[in-house]
Description:
Order of helices and strands: HEEEEEEEEEE
Radius of gyration: 18 Å
Helix content: 10-25%
Strand order of the largest sheet: 3-2-1-10-9-8-7-6-5-4
CATH topology: Lipocalin
Amino acid sequence: xxxxRSYTAAVLSIVMCALCLCGCVTSPLDTExxxxxxxxxxRVAACAQDVAERHPDxxxxxxxxxxxxxxxxxxxxxxxxxxxxxxxxxxxxxxxNFIVRFGGNECRMTIAETVYADGSTRPTLVLSGxxxxxxxxxxxx
Length: 141
């Protein structure tokens, strides 16, 4: 085996071990996302039906988000917005940060695991921009 092949094999082994250890073998981009809340100007402005009891002043919305090969689609009440996303730091293992562009508008998207006090976790996707943050969680399989 040449030095180059040996080095390449070693690097690939290290990367695969790191991915297996952190549980990130499947991309969070492959996750099905469920809308929970939209925070606007510091208050819950909208939420999903299943959390509406906790947010009685919020508008109830059914929002769907789909990520596919650099394209993002957000749909609600028959309206759809399509945009593109780009990973800002593809070498991070614990979270992924993206810039999202919808026409001339930009926002940030972060995908990471939320860890709760009881030790449980769930995938979390946050779209955020000026004065708003929309929270989505991985659908339970």
